[in-house]
Amino acid sequence: MNGPTRLLEEGATETERDLLRAGLTDGPSASWMRDTRAALGLATGLAAASTIASVAAAAKWSAPLFFKWLGALLAAAVVVASLTFVVRRRVTAAPEVLPVVDDPPPATSQRRRIAAGASESVVDPVSTVDESPESPSVESTPATARHAERPLAATKTLSAEVASLDNVRHYLVADNPAGALRALAKYHASFPAQLLGPEATVLEVQALMADGDPGHRARGIALARRFVKMHPTSPHASQLEALISKAHEP
Amino acid sequence: MRPGFYSMATPVVVGEKDSIPPVSPADSVETASGAASKDRLARAFEQNAVFIWRSLRRLGVPREAADDATQQVFLVAARRMHEISEGKERAFLFQSAMRIAMEVRRELSVARGRADSDEGGLLERADPAVRPDEAVDQQRTLRVLGHVLESMPIERRAAFVLYEIEGITMAEIASLLQIPMGTVASRLRLAREDFRAAVARLERPLHGGVK
Fold first, then answer.
1. Highest mean pLDDT range out of B57-61, B119-123, B135-139?
2. Which residue does chain B place closest to A10, by CA atoms?
3. Which of A176, B54, B114, B191 could form a disulfide with A171 if both were Cys (CB 3.0 to 4.6 A apart)?
4. ipTM over 0.90
5. Other C-beta atoms lying within 10 Å of the C-beta of residue B49
6. Which CATH architecture has domain B25-207?
């Protein structure tokens, strides 16, 4: 079944043709494509795939071309290795194993970013952590603050963020909101520039509301309201509104 | 907390439950490795990102929300790639896009009343190769196209956009939407009527309004 002749090919008025043609004129920006590729952890893989494809094509058509590409690849590898060495040296300059303290850092919330709007959050998840015996430590200190501010997020992949939030969900499923809040604190420390910031906010609201503490519940409601106000068209807004309504139920 | 409130089977991520098209057992490929899934995701992204972004726009997602919505589509795909069989990626992505577009439209209808910020976004994203006056024309035309497409129910709209704008064959549309060819033809016919009627309504004041 070939289908009817398309309007653009036959039978459309000038206005109709203009409108239909316009439908193909817009698209995402190149920077969005690049950022999303990186966020999905695809940038490196694509580069490698591209290189492999290039080498394969070179080998197919001529040996000299193949060696030319191979040389280029090796040169690129040397450059990448050098850059990696420099970055690793800078990263390892700071202590990786950090002291465990009981007092949370004062300004964690300033580091938090909601990916959808890159806006600051009002709730400091660390300050809401229950200092119960089952949660003896909070892995965030002023040192971690500096640690988190390093551009680690650039090297983290989406899967790492997803895994981190899955961990939060496990705590929620296990009816352990305090554990969920601790896991969220780790998430915020590990991913200063979050791709899944809105999802994290939803989980945080759920954890705060599930905690049973009236103060936490109020903070959860405030966080949810702030998010909905700032991102009314977000796919997450409706669930947060539902959580707010649920929180007001007797 | 109520038992089962946070169920792993029911994702807590907002909208995701509605956003994920069901994967039939026939489509399920449980043995795919993580690396293979990543390669497939990379290919799916390169081949479909622009198509999905544009489809979301034509399905009524405002420009300012299109980036996030597209990203959401691929995030869902990234998490479920191992469940999608080879060759079904585009269909999965498009169905996710349709569901997300419906969510966004639902939320927009709730938040209606705010000024349409489409123009600002279009100006911001205008193709640098296009002259400013051309860009303005293009923005206007796209806005009009959006209004015209609004006259169609989303199912007809999807068939119309895929066939008349994206140039996809009816067989592939049937595969993308997982509906019979006859249904595609029927939706397309009705969508054309909607389209023509909407364009005629637009043209009426232009050609017959001044005395």
1. B57-61
2. B164
3. A176
4. no
5. 22
6. Orthogonal Bundle (1.10)
